[in-house]
Design a protein that fits this description.
With about 60 residues, the protein is an all-alpha fold. Helix content is about 60%, strand content about 0%. The protein has one domain.
Length: about 60
C-alpha cells in the first residue's frame, strides 16, 4: 500500500515562516513557541522542539 501524503512536507519558502517565528520571540521576551512547525514534522522533532524551549526558559531564568 502506498500513502503519498503520509509525511507532511513544508512548502517552499517555509524558512521565512521560521524566521518570522524567531522574530516574534525576539520581540516578545518570555514568549517561547514550540512544536512541529519549528524543527520538523515527526513526534520526535516536536518533542525536541519542546525540550529546546524548556532549555531556553532554564537559561533565561538562570
Amino acid at each position: 500500500m502506498h500513502w503519498p501524503r503520509a509525511i507532511p512536507q513544508y512548502h517552499v519558502g517555509y524558512g521565512r515562516v521560521k524566521g518570522a517565528i524567531d522574530q516574534i520571540e525576539a520581540d516578545a521576551p518570555g514568549l517561547l513557541l514550540a512544536g512541529n512547525y519549528r524543527a520538523g514534522v515527526s513526534v520526535g522533532d516536536a518533542a525536541e522542539s519542546g525540550h529546546a524551549a524548556a532549555q531556553r526558559i532554564i537559561e533565561r531564568d538562570a
